Amino acid sequence: MKALTILLPYLPENYPLSVIVVLHLHPRQNRYFLEHYNQFCALNVKEADEKENIQAGYVYFAPPNYHLLVESNKTFSLSTDEKVNYSRPSIDVLFESAAAVYGPRLAAILLTGANNDGAEGLRLIKEKGGLVIVQDPQSADSAYMPEAALRVVKPDLVLGLAEIGRWLAESAH
Prior knowledge:
The protein has helices spanning about 1-5, 30-40, 90-100, 120-125, 145-150, 160-170, and strands spanning about 20, 45, 60, 65-70, 75-80, 105-110, 130-135, 155-160. By secondary structure, the protein is α/β, with parallel strands linked by helices. The protein has a single domain (about 1-170), classed as 3-Layer(aba) Sandwich (Rossmann fold), CATH 3.40.50. The longest helix has 12 residues, at about 90-100. It is globular.
């Protein structure tokens, strides 16, 4: 959560893209984290809903205990399928479905974390021509997840949190 507290304020009010986030949360996590991020993010922060159209200017979070997928019609679907990498929601599940829909128009960022979730999804995004960014493990609270990604894929960028934030703010124009 700390990493997103640093990144989300970089997104300007008129941000022309959608941002989709998977956090490994407790299955019965309350919605406080959404209120927390809404306090300092200029965009609308919300939990993704089943069959919701993905819109620019929103930060969507995967609901606790549900995999979040992007459908071909650019809506969300939620799944209670088995955990992937000990996680539900799984970053890999989101990345793989988003890669299939957006291909080279997708940018994916993997941040700090304590397992290898997201690494295989990043590999697939890269194969489909998407842009891959990994947080510099030296700047991560937990370096395991970025290091796992770096073992699986050669990212386009390896950046610290402030650099990722600046990249997000500047690249959308």
